[in-house]
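FAQ: What does a multi-protein file look like?

Like this. Sequence, then tokens, then the next protein.
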Amino acid sequence: MAEGTPGTPEAAADSHARASEVVNVLMVGVGGQGIVLASDLLAEAALIAGLDVKKSEIHGMSQRGGPVFSHVRFGPGRVQSPTIPQGEADVIYALERMELLRWAAWARPGGAACYFAQDMYPAGVSAYPEGLDEEIASRFGPVVRFDPRELRDRVSPKVKNTALLGAMSTLIPLDPGCYVAAMPRLCPPGTADVNAAAFELGRQLAQERLAARDGEPATAG
């Protein structure tokens, strides 16, 4: 993906050319994981790129660990609706593994998944069934998977949502510089730099693994 100076006519033209149609990204997780901030960053990055953006989110029980989801849609023309029709998501970004499966029907055929293999059990559940990662791989096209233990010593748990956003940026047609430009506007004061570093680490890891597995199913993690 070409780098560009965010907000410049060149960067906007580049993002317009690559996002020739509406891009649908569904972002899911549970309360407290940072879905709302990650989706705000994605939407702001698309705005910086000069694209039309619509966003919708539900986080009514987020304070108690309930499900949180956000629809983000953007493109060079007018985006008519803020919600993604079932079966039309280009990418599902998930900070919790079962939430990804719960929303798998929203992916288009061959759509991508980008997720943390992290389990946050609802009340009354102490374990998930075996084979969740295999089930996810069977339902999606490209898959980027991170084990939370893998990033534990490399980024703060508070910015793992941004690290996964960086990984997801390898799967959608949007100038990565636009995400970084969005961070000073939306991240908590004093955290733009650490979020930018986490974004770059996630992006780098996803690129390395997808490249290493070229010729095999595009799964990272």
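And here is the next protein:
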Amino acid sequence: MSRTFFDHIHLVDPSTGWDKTASVLIEDGRIAAVDDPAKIGPPPSDATIITAENAVLAPGLVDMRVQSRNPGHAYQESRQSLTEAAIAGGITTMVCLPNTAPVLDDPDSLAALVRHDRNEKRATPRIFAYGAATRNLDNEHMAELGLLAEAGAVGFTNGIIPIADSLVMRRIMDYAAMLDKPVIQHAEDMSLAAGGEMNEGENSTRLGLRGIPAEAEEVMIARDITLARLTGARYHIAHVSTARGVDLVRRAKAEGISVTCDTAPPYYLLNDVAALQYDTRFQLSPPLRGDTDRQAVLAGIIDGTIDCIASDHAPQDRDSKLLPFGIAARGSSGLETLLALVLGLYTDGHLPLLRAMELISTAPAVLLDLPGGSLAPGATADMVLFAPERGWQIRGGAFRSLSKSTPFEGHPVQGKVISTWIDGKMAFKADPPHGT
């Protein structure tokens, strides 16, 4: 039996509400005991003892929105670079979108992506996937949702394009409700977006770029909430970015409709002023909005309307970003910056540390019925140990991901991953800081 003992560690576990010093015993990959150091007693004689002053032990991050690029686009992200980037970011579980080549619209393709090779000597993140909501993401023909669910799909989505047809969406919701799986929507009315290149507003006019109105998101959310009310489906909005979008979710929840949503760090930290230099690192989907929208997204995180925060990892190769702003590829690398950018909500005084960690661990695990997100006795020992006060500067060139593009290039942050643990095994250990 293998044993690891975390001695006098600051434990933050949103699933139990624990936010204080504890000792934690791991046995054969599971949490065997958690208690006050005075109560739990001395460590077993054969245990590996871990101590870390000024560090926090928390459930490993559960990232619910990742574009794997695998299979089909390994030049943008390989399976190895994806997993190395994830564990360097403290992520122990990630859920991938079905927009691969081939599309994950059949059980075999989906099972191949999520297969976890237990013979690997090194612990790797758990990979789950959404099944495609429509065949080949064509928006016309519903995929075999039942077979995809049997193959392990944790929900259904068309990935980075919306499920546009209302009747098709209703049928998908009907079936998903019977399967008790969520439907995840990229909420954007493409006819309103009309090939836009950035957020519609004063800055798009100044730059001479075609604008995407906030209403393109709001119209789709309003329609889908109506269908969720009709069907009783679990409806989830990905990367919500507008004030009216957040408010629609808030009202739907008050009405008792099964609606949830997530956002990503760019949408509460940045606004469309960032695009004024035509820097394609800020070319994202949805686009960076105006500051009123940014503040509303932040308010939605603080008041609990927004359930989770995802990395929205969308790796792009260098050439696809070295283009004029309007036609450059949309997306950026996000796995290795998620923890630090969310911890900013704590260090800036917006959220308690417990709630900040809940947004990226326990909440997405519960929403998608995934393992993880808890360090209660009996839980699998998927954990992240991090230094919340350690400052560093985001540099895309240092990413493990093949994609080096980040809208937070040069951004100073606090919170550094020390080690990542999966099944009680150390999957990642950071280099010690200079001078130690």
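Q: Is there any per-entry metadata?
A: Some entries carry free-text notes. For the entry above: The mean pLDDT is 96.
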